[in-house]
Amino acid sequence: MRRAYSRGLVAAAAASALVLSACGGDDGDDGGDAGGGGGGQELTIGFMGAQTGTSAQLGINISNGVELALEQHNAKSGVTKVKLIKYDTQGDPAQATNQVKKAVTDKIVALVGPAFSGESKTGVPILEEAGIPNISPSATAVTLASNGWKTWHRVLANDDVQGPGVADFMAKTLSAKNVAVIDDQSEYGKGLADAVRGQLEKNGVKVAVNDSISPDEASYSATINKVKPANVDALFFGGYYAAGGKLVKQLRDSGVQGTFVSGDGSLDAAFVTGGGEAAEGALLSCTCSSAVGSTDPEVQKFATDYKAKFNADPATYSAEGYDATNAILQAIDAGKTSTEDINTYLDTIDFKGVSKQIKFTDTGELEGDLLFITEVKSGKLAFLGDTATAKPSS
Amino acid sequence: MWNDFVTQFWPSTIDGLTNGSIYALVALGYTLVYGVLRLINFAHSEIFMIGTFASLFVLDWINISGPQTGLALVGVLLMMLAVSMAVSGGSAVLLERIAYRPLRKRGASRLAALISAIGASFFLQELFAIWQGRDQLSIPRVMDKEVLFNIGSGQVRNDKLLVVVAAILMMIALDRFVNGSRLGRGIRATAQDPDTAVLMGVNIDRVVLVTFLLGGMLAGVAAMLYGVFFELTQYNVGFLLGIKAFTAAVLGGIGNIRGALVGGLALGLIENYGASFFGSEWLNVVAFSVLVLVLMFRPTGILGENLQRARA
């Protein structure tokens, strides 16, 4: 009943957004192409992702990175000032369509986002039509790249890299022989877990237990009772941090040993608070990099600046948000002020970002396929580096 | 399939009984109110949610340092229990006052009360979402989880035993109260025939109040046990559990106090057995299929009897 009600609200909101965007279309399209760059003129870029809702933390991590990049840019003299509008999707693909329409009428010149894969699926087609260049700092669904979108980019490798990469890591670095793979039945979690299952078997690792949890359920006892007798030496979970924290706690409380491994959906401080002591030693993979603990002076500077501004360490996708914004700002600094020019310029970009080298292929994918590992150590997320060099302590 | 079921039989049984006990305690709230007012109190799941937050606040307030043992543990548990029961019971009474009594006084239809219940449920959820945020909150660990003894391959852990024993004790206490006390007689009389009960001198407002108070207090017990066992809460923690508990109440026979116990335990067991047999993704499918089957052959639930006809 509650679901139906909220769906009704969304429908109403969608209808009003349609009306709004129709009005917006009438007052001409003089905004995007006006002016030739340089001082005086102010441009607007957007950020789109969750700012409220259950996955809000990931979105806030990104928008903080965006804000920091803009602040540093606007503090320089003789540059085109750039303003930010944040579009809150609550992580909901249906909301994303409304927000994208709003962004189009706001005449932004480029967008950092949409953040998640589901939002990108619904939002990017509208951006594509309006010709607004968009760089996602966090959408990893594989299929996004195969839509022939001209304006779409992302600054991290996709799930095709993550699944097999983490499976290889479990087989080689962890020398796992007997594992369990659990997913949360979501598009993301199941997809990732299936990729891990396939690659583990290719590596000759025995997948002793395959099971799914319903993430909202309080008790995962049924799944745990399957894992327990299998005596696995590692377990992979495809899903998000709230369920991941609950799962690892219930596993350890029931005496299940073996390394807990999960993907970027679980890479959040809330995984550690939810799992408590049980989360200790868990390994989390992500195609995103982490700025904390890096020895590179430029990355360290980013981490200190971030901490100074937000009184928190950069977290998952903060560095990606920062890099995506800087890619757009480079285009603006080169005198590109129209959506079209910025989009063309993005194809030529090649710079060392704080997360990794930023260079796009012609489909908008990032070049390179690095996967990074983070370990939970003494209640904190400790970045271990890419899969080739990461050395877990356990 | 069959092998999985056999090897996991004892662990499934233990977990089924543990989860089922919590379902049963919440189910009692639905059953009591339904028995007396013929109203499905959809906001009951939020009464439970408020209880979990009360447990969390108690632990924050005493600033618990870590798992306790011995007398300190008993003290902490009793304190959580008392506060949780008081807050949930109080909220339930307040809810009745604000959301239901005005409607009842004006002789509004039962449907109006149902809408009012749904509205109250929304209101309370959003209130806590805005106040406490929408993220899952961890409840600190109050007791170390140790295996006490084994039954077959199943391990009986101290927290699971606590949940089951506490739930059964509460059920017995409630059963004695409703069947043995003066107020309990009033509840049964009102359930049977409100008009005649009034003529016989039963104070209906008081009976309704006590009914809500009892249901709320039991939800508070469930919330405290939930806090100790699952160690987390969230503004919408009651939603799924409320549906499960309501299902348990219907399965056992809504309006029937002992039915809530049977329904809760049965639902917990069916879920775990079903999941071990078919795989965890089928857990809810199996549970609800069984519910439909039971209702086809016993439309009034397993025990079927109503509170109105409940005898000592």
Descriptors:
A: alpha/beta; Rossmann fold; five-stranded parallel beta sheet; 14 strands; disordered N terminus; B: 312 residues; mainly alpha; ABC transporter involved in vitamin B12 uptake, BtuC; two-stranded antiparallel sheet; 12 helices; 75% helix; globular
Write the layout of secondary structure elements.
The complex is a heterodimer of chains A (394) and B (312).
Chain A: H1 2-26, E1 42-49, H2 56-75, E2 81-88, H3 93-105, E3 110-112, H4 117-130, E4 134-136, E5 152-154, H5 159-172, E6 178-183, H6 187-202, E7 206-212, H7 221-227, E8 234-238, H8 241-253, E9 259-262, H9 269-275, E10 283-286, H10 297-310, H11 318-333, H12 339-346, E11 350-352, E12 357-359, E13 372-377, E14 380-386
Parallel strand pairs in A: 1-2, 1-3, 3-4, 4-5, 6-7, 6-8, 8-9, 9-10
Antiparallel strand pairs in A: 10-13, 11-12, 13-14
Helix pairs in contact in A: 1-3, 2-11, 3-4, 5-6, 8-9, 11-12
Chain B: H1 2-7, H2 9-37, H3 44-62, H4 70-105, H5 110-132, E1 137-138, E2 147-151, E3 154-157, H6 158-180, H7 182-192, H8 194-199, H9 204-230, E4 232-233, H10 237-252, H11 257-278, H12 283-297
Antiparallel strand pairs in B: 1-4, 2-3
Walk me through this protein's architecture:
The complex is a heterodimer of chains A (394) and B (312). Chain A has a seven-stranded mixed sheet with strand order 7-6-8-9-10-13-14, with helices on both faces. Chain A has a five-stranded parallel sheet with strand order 2-1-3-4-5, with helices on both faces. In chain A, strands 11-12 form a two-stranded antiparallel sheet. Mean pLDDT of chain A is 86; it is low at 1-39. Helix content of chain A is 42%, strand content 18%. Chain A has helices spanning 2-26, 56-75, 93-105, 117-130, 159-172, 187-202, 221-227, 241-253, 269-275, 297-310, 318-333, 339-346, and strands at residues 42-49, 81-88, 110-112, 134-136, 152-154, 178-183, 206-212, 234-238, 259-262, 283-286, 350-352, 357-359, 372-377, 380-386. In chain A, helix 11 packs across helix 12 (339-346). Chain A folds into two domains: 37-157 and 297-359, Rossmann fold (3-Layer(aba) Sandwich), CATH 3.40.50.2300; 160-286 and 371-386, Response regulator (Rossmann fold), CATH 3.40.50. Chain A contains twelve helices and 14 strands. With 394 residues, chain A is an alpha/beta fold. In chain A, strand 6, helix 6 and strand 7 form a beta-alpha-beta unit. The radius of gyration of chain A is 21 Å and the shape is globular. By secondary structure, chain B is mostly helical. Chain B has a single domain (2-309), classed as ABC transporter involved in vitamin B12 uptake, BtuC. In chain B, the strands form two sheets. In chain B, strands 1-4 form a two-stranded antiparallel ribbon. In chain B, strands 2-3 form a two-stranded antiparallel ribbon. The N and C termini of chain B lie far apart (43 Å). The mean pLDDT of chain B is 90. The chains are: A alpha/beta (394), B mainly alpha (312). The interface between A and B is large, with 35 and 38 residues.
